[in-house]
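Field log, afternoon session.

UNIT: design team B
ACTIVITY: writing a sequence onto a fixed backbone
BACKBONE:
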C-alpha cells in the first residue's frame, strides 16, 4: 500500500485554502441570518438603531440584527469534511 505525504508547500496551500473557505462559510451564515423585508418595493434589512454609528455623513452603516438559525451549519463539521 502506498501512502501519499504532501509537501510542506502543499500543506501550506491547503491550510490557506481552508482558511479562505472557512471565512466564506462564516460570511454566508451571517447573510442567511439577516432579517430582510420589502419596504415600499425596496429591499430592506432590520438594524439595531442604537448601533448606527459607523461611516460618515451620507454614508452611514448600522449593525444588522441577526435572527437565530434553525439548523446552524457547524464550521468544524465542514472543516472535518474538507480535510
Amino acid at each position: 500500500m502506498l501512502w501519499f505525504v504532501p509537501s510542506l508547500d502543499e500543506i501550506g496551500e491547503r491550510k490557506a485554502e481552508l482558511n479562505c473557505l472557512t471565512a466564506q462559510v462564516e460570511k454566508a451564515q451571517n447573510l442567511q441570518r439577516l432579517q430582510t423585508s420589502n419596504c415600499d418595493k425596496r429591499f430592506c434589512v432590520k438594524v439595531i438603531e442604537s448601533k448606527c454609528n459607523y461611516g460618515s455623513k451620507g454614508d452611514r452603516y448600522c449593525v444588522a440584527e441577526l435572527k437565530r438559525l434553525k439548523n446552524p451549519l457547524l464550521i468544524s463539521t465542514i472543516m472535518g469534511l474538507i480535510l
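LOG NOTE: The chain is about 40% helix and 20% strand.
NEXT ACTIVITY: expression trials, pending approval
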